[in-house]
Design goal:
alpha+beta, 24% helix, five-stranded mixed β-sheet
């Protein structure tokens, strides 16, 4: 049981050994929000420190309240400078401080606990629990002996003892902190603490971290029940006043505050609170992707010039959990726009174009938070935007880039750490040379144009990231374009693949905003045309979504292009939503079209993939052909239902 209690009272994260300076050099400035974050994160440790340093003459219940009061009053009212405090300079190595705000708040707590002010020795106004006496749990004989030994020491000596044996500071560090806290004879205080007769375990924190000295793990006993009954009405009135004041203070209208544009909290639980803490965000090292068994978003390092801006990260997490009425929220189909189940991973935080952008990943989704860089919209909470997109199961081929910013027909990508070079290519013009796209030190590319809606499609930009071809379809995750058989698609690199996509690219406009993950173009047949009109390529284009459902399949015929337009868009013969045709589960295809030859005659053309052994046309025009091609004379307006026979004996229906 004692071992379990010690684990529960373990030193907070980041503060196993903290330098007195908190990693700040002389003249550094501590923001109020930075101090508040340190106070909230390390509140139990600070209260324990104050409880040990406060005078032992008062009752344990009053000492508990006084310790909480000292810590809650330690928050500065404005930005504070460390100049002149006598704090040592920043240390390096494993002993370097991680949280500079903690050392600053700790110094203010020590000053207040060591001072002889009346407000410290008397129980503070808050916190109080009416009708109860609160005091720490009683320990064993060793804890009692240590408490008695500390009670014989002076206040500075108790502070020296705590700094040396709880905070694990060296003697020179502890002396400088004591001097900064106002102790006139710091050396004598350290000597007195060293001479204290303490039981075994006092010098290795095992007793100091026990529940005996934890003002946050309390026992409760009733006070005078008769007196409490007499003052019941007064308590109810005071409680109502506190609730009214709290509601008024929480109302919007005076700026964003620490939670930005977030709505008021609606629930509290451990997982939800952890997801709101910027200190618990997962941050991957810059080289993790080099040694990971699987390269995906989980191996991306955190990049950007604002990844240490705790106020920004707190706003982003709070708006994610509780977007206010003025926040613009968007989500791709099948993506839940709800809060995170626990701490997320930080991918990026920085200024992109005219916005401050934060990209987060929770294993299932990528979330983009953006606010105006100039602070506009903060007064009414309308300057924030929140975008959600599913990216579950993304591997290196689907985790190469994310959209960081989209403005005025341009898009900037945040590239994966393994992407070293990018080029801008035009799918409609495969013979044109691509243009290099610069990647900044933060992984963000220079602006790349996006495809603009127009009646006549003349260009379709795409990003060549390494060997992968990506295109923006209006979502956070760009769609990857591939070419080849459904079960083994490849990159769009060969001349045939580029020509096929040049005549298909403009069909991508129908896929905007559909949560598309990949789009594969597969030439499943090449048919000789009647009347010697050349060869026609039959393509099946299939788009897969991140959510699995909602796939989109299109069949098209690409007849010989007219002169002067070698990459004219092909003719779509069928479109289907859902199903497995042309996909890895059903890598077969059959399609047909009524075609007018250059000589002016009409023909029914049909083609199937290699597994098709015969094609039959019924219901209107009747025709049959062995093999996987059919060409039958027809008239304008004819129609037919196509079926095919497979080599396995099964049947296949044509896409329609």
């Amino acid at each position: 049981m004692k071992q379990q209690q010690k684990q529960q009272q373990a030193t907070p994260r980041h503060v196993d050994r903290v330098s007195p300076a908190g990693g700040e050099e002389a003249g550094d400035v501590i923001d109020v929000e930075q101090a508040e974050a340190a106070l909230v994160e390390h509140y139990p440790r600070l209260v324990r420190l104050a409880y040990l340093v406060l005078p032992p003459g008062q009752s344990r219940s009053r000492r508990v309240l006084a310790a909480h009061g000292v810590v809650q009053r330690a928050l500065p009212r404005q930005r504070s400078s460390t100049r002149g405090l006598g704090l040592p300079a920043q240390r390096a190595g494993t002993d370097a401080a991680i949280d500079p705000g903690y050392a600053f708040v700790r110094l203010r707590v020590l000053r207040a606990a060591l001072s002889g002010r009346r407000g410290v020795r008397r129980p503070p106004l808050f916190p109080q629990v009416w009708g109860l006496r609160l005091f720490p749990r009683s320990g064993g004989a060793d804890e009692l002996a240590l408490d008695q030994a500390l009670s014989t020491l002076s206040g500075p000596a108790r502070a020296a003892f705590v700094l040396r044996d709880l905070e694990r500071l060296s003697t020179p560090e502890a002396r400088r902190v004591l001097e900064a806290a106002g102790v006139a004879h710091a050396r004598e205080a350290l000597d007195e603490a060293e001479r204290a007769a303490t039981p075994a375990g006092s010098r290795d924190r095992s007793l100091l971290e026990s529940p005996e000295f934890d003002p946050c793990a309390l026992q409760a006993r009733p006070t005078d029940l008769i007196r409490r009954r007499q003052h019941g009405r007064a308590v109810l009135a005071a409680g109502a006043a506190v609730l009214v004041c709290g509601a008024l203070l929480g109302m919007p209208g005076d700026g964003w505050g620490p939670d930005g544009a977030a709505a008021p909290p609606y629930a509290r639980n451990a997982a939800a609170e952890a997801a709101l803490d910027p200190g618990k965000l997962t941050v991957t090292s810059a080289t993790a992707w080099k040694h990971a068994a699987r390269q995906d978003f989980a191996t991306w390092p955190a990049r950007g010039d604002r990844i240490h801006d705790r106020a920004l990260l707190r706003r982003a997490l709070a708006v994610w959990a509780r977007p206010g009425a003025g926040v613009q929220v968007s989500a791709t189909p099948g993506t839940a726009p709800g809060p995170a189940a626990g701490p997320a991973q930080l991918l990026f935080a920085g200024v992109v174009d005219h916005a401050v952008v934060v990209l987060l990943h929770d294993g299932l989704r990528v979330v983009r938070y953006a606010e105006a860089a100039d602070g506009s919209g903060q007064s009414d909470g309308t300057g924030a935007a929140l975008d959600f997109a599913r990216v579950d199961g993304a591997a290196a081929d689907a985790a190469s880039a994310l959209v960081a910013s989209r403005t005025q027909g341009n898009v900037r990508y945040l590239t994966a750490p393994w992407v070293k070079s990018t080029r801008l290519v035009d799918l409609v013009k495969p013979d044109a040379a691509g243009q290099p796209v610069a990647i900044g030190s933060d992984g963000v590319t220079s602006p790349v144009p996006t495809a603009q809606p127009a009646e006549k499609c003349t260009t379709w930009p795409a990003l060549q990231a390494g060997g992968r071809l990506l295109t923006d379809l209006g979502e956070l995750a760009p769609a990857r374009l591939t070419y080849g058989r459904p079960r083994r698609p490849g990159e769009v690199t060969g001349r045939q693949a580029k020509a096929a996509w040049a005549r298909t690219a403009c069909q991508l406009a129908a896929l905007r905003g559909q949560g598309v993950r990949t789009v594969n173009a597969w030439e499943f047949a090449r048919q000789p045309l009647p009347t010697g009109a050349g060869l026609a390529a039959w393509l099946c284009t299939r788009a897969e979504t991140w959510r699995g459902a909602g796939s989109w399949t299109m069949a098209q015929i690409q007849t010989p292009a007219p002169k002067g337009a070698p990459y004219a868009t092909g003719t779509v013969t069928a479109r289907a939503e859902g199903g497995t045709a042309c996909g890895p589960r059903n890598p077969r295809a059959l399609a047909g079209v009524l075609w007018k030859s250059p000589a002016g005659t009409w023909w029914l053309l049909a083609a199937g993939s290699g597994q098709v052994t015969s094609i039959t046309a019924r219901s209107g025009l009747h025709a049959q052909a062995a093999g996987h091609f059919l060409a039958a004379p027809a008239k304008a307006g004819d129609h037919a239902e196509l079926t095919g026979r497979l080599a396995t004996g099964g049947k296949i229906e044509a896409l329609h």
